[in-house]
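Section 5: illustrative case.
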């Protein structure tokens, strides 16, 4: 449409995000701007394009016919243009003011993200960070493809093959239990011991997509007794502290919380392979200078855990 040729790249980015999210607030969150700033741009876009673009339908906003026509073509063209410009744009961490969007598995958030955030803020003092949790359903692929995420840090039995991937580190498995537990004096558990115990596990790891622990057990034809599930890793340690439940985690995570909460660490059975942690990103940012710098920082922080 000829009217689009008069708009700046920034206005086109706002327009594209508005048409995808159909929400001023979500557009503001995605682009790291205030809602009032996005509202100003929306009013200007309506004037320039001679169309309401978004109209209310009950409790939701819907696209006008003209907006729908724009939406069908704008995102692909804008993505290609953005990639072309960003691939050639230099990145100066001393002056950069952009927002980086990173999602991670909750098993690495307590230890990894504080170090990462500290390093990023030291080396690029004017950037903004938006840290979130990996969607276990796999929706992160679309978030990477559409620019809502720049990088993902997580642990998978087999990382998604359609995304760019770099192994960050591996960490052996340990079991956390309370002092006085019947197995607390062991150096390591046998598989027979392990299967006889009652376990607490994050519920995302007992879904149809097996996590590292249950995937390793499945390979040897075994299945643990998960007595309690929790929505996030952090809650598991509290249940372990006041019960005979056992929690399986990577050693860095395990020893950190054992010291923090006075728990006992026992080596997991040898049948449990080390947990693998990966960095994932989309091909669209493969040559983007800012994202290359971000990935280098993530890998640099990961190297501290291998030391």
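Designed sequence:
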């Amino acid at each position: 449409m000829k009217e689009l040729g008069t708009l700046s790249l920034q206005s086109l980015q706002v327009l594209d995000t508005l048409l995808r999210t159909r929400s001023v607030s979500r557009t503001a969150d995605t682009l790291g701007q205030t809602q009032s700033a996005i509202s100003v741009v929306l009013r200007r876009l309506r004037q320039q394009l001679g169309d309401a673009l978004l109209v209310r339908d009950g409790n939701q906003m819907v696209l006008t016919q003209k907006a729908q026509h724009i939406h069908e073509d704008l995102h692909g063209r804008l993505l290609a243009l953005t990639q072309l410009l960003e691939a050639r744009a230099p990145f100066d961490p001393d002056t950069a003011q952009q927002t980086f969007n990173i999602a991670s598995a909750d098993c690495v958030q307590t230890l990894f993200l504080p170090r990462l955030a500290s390093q990023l803020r030291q080396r690029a003092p004017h950037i903004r960070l938006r840290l979130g949790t990996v969607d276990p359903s796999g929706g992160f692929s679309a978030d990477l493809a559409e620019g809502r995420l720049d990088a993902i840090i997580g642990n998978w039995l087999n990382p998604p093959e359609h995304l760019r991937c770099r192994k960050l580190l591996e960490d052996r498995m340990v079991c956390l239990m309370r002092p006085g537990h019947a197995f607390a004096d062991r150096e390591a558990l046998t598989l027979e011991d392990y299967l006889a115990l009652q376990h607490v596990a994050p519920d995302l790891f007992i879904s149809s997509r097996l996590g590292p622990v249950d995937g390793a057990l499945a390979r040897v034809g075994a299945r643990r007794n998960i007595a309690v599930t929790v929505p996030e890793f952090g809650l598991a340690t509290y249940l372990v502290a006041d019960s005979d439940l056992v929690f399986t985690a990577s050693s860095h995570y395990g020893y950190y919380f054992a010291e923090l909460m006075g728990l006992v660490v026992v080596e997991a059975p040898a049948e449990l392979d080390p947990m693998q942690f990966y960095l994932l990103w989309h091909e669209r940012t493969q040559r983007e200078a800012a994202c290359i710098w971000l990935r280098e920082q993530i890998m640099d922080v990961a190297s501290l855990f291998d030391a």
